[in-house]
Amino acid sequence: MMRSMFSAISGLKAHQAMMDVIGNNIANVNTPGYKTARITFKDVFSQTLRGATGPQEGRGGTNPQQIGLGVSVASIDNLFTNGSSQRTDNPLDLSISGNGFFVVGDNSGRYFTRAGNFGLDSSGNLVNSSGYLVLGWQADVDGNYDTATEPAALNLFNKLTLGAMPTTNITMGGNLDAGTPDTSPDNEISYNVSIYDSLGNEHILTLHFTRTGSNTWDVSLTTNDSSITSTFPAAVTFTFDANGKLTDTDTVATDGIMTLPITGITYNNGAATQDITISFPIDNFTMFAGDTTAKAVDKDGYAAGTLESFTIDQYGKVVGTYSNGGRQLLGVLAIADFANEGGLQKIGDNLFIDTNNSGNPEIGQAGGRGLGVINPGTLEMSNVDLSQEFTNMIIAQRGFQANSRIITAADELLQELVNMKR
Q1: Name one Pfam family in it (predicted).
Q2: What domains can you pick out in the chain, each with its CATH number?
C-alpha cells in the first residue's frame, strides 16, 4: 500500500511538472520567436519480486515479477519548428525562414535568438528589445566584409556621410528632330548636363547638336562654369542613315556605342583632374521627325550625402540610402546554426546559450551553408499550438486526478487496517 501511495505521489509531481510546462507554453503564445516545450515521462526503478527463469527439467520458463515504483520526468524538450510570420512592415523587424538564429551579445558573451524585433540605440547600434547588441560584420568603405572573422556589434551610424563620387560616365539617349534646318542660326540644339567633381561640387556642361547636312550633326561641348579651367575637344560628327539610325562618327566603336571622350578636365577649386566619357548607343540615339528628346539617360557621380534610411535584404545585408541618392553597404547580420539545436539552453529574454550537447555554433551569412534566409518586415511568432496545449492540459489534469485517487484509495486501505485493531 505504501508503494502505491509513493508511486501516486510521483505521478502527482510528474503531472504537476507537465502542467507547469503547458502553462508556460500558453503564457508565451504571443511571444516572438518562442519555442514550445514538450515534457515526456519515464518509469523509475522497479522492485523485482522474482527473477526470470529459463526452461528446465521439463518445465517452461517464467517471466520476472516486478512492481514499479512510480514515474519521473524523462525530458523537457524545446521544439524548434518555425513559427508563423507576422507582417509588420517595420524594416528592423526580421524573421528567419529556415535554420539559424540571430546572434546577439554583451560584455558577458554571446547569445542566440529567433526573435528579430530589433531597434537602434542612441549610438546607432542595432539592438534587440532587451538591449543586447546584434552581431555581424561591419563593411568597410568599399563594401567589403569577411565572414571568416568573429562577428561584432553592428553600428549603422558608422557611415553617416557618403563621400562624393566624381562623374566618369554619361550615357545619352533620345531623338534629334529630323526637321531641324541645316543652316544657322536655327540648326543648333543645346542640352545641359550636370556633372560632379571629386569634392562633390556640381558643374553644368552644355552639349551642342549642330546640324551640318541632311544626315550629319556636329556634337560639341562647352561650359560657362568659371571653376573649369580646361578646354574641351573639337566637335565630333555624327552620321545617320536613311532610317534615322546613327551609323558613324569620328570616333569608331566596335560595340555599337559612339563615344565622346573628355580627358583631363581641370578645376580651380582644388578638385582632382577628371576624365569623362559621354556615350551614344547607336540603337538608342535616333534622328526622326518630331520632338528633340536627347538627354542623359544614365550617369554616375554624386555629391556628398547624409544617411537617410536603410534596408535589410534576405541575406542580412544592411544597405544605407543617402540624401544624394547613393547607396552603400553598412554591414551584414550574422546567423548561427547548431548540430543539435535541441541542446540549447533557455536563459530568458528570448535567448538561448550553447551547451556541451548543442555543439559549437556555426556562424555565417544568411542563405549560405544551409542557413535560412531573412524576411525583413516580419516577425516569427511563437510556435505554440493552442489546440494541442489545451488537449495536453486535459490529459495532465486527468492524470493528476487519477493519481490522487490512488492516494485516496491507499489511505482508505490504511484506515481499514487501523480499524481492525478495535
Answers
A1: Flg_bbr_C
A2: 2-44+70-80+383-419 (no CATH), 85-162+307-380 (no CATH), 169-299 (2.60.98.20)
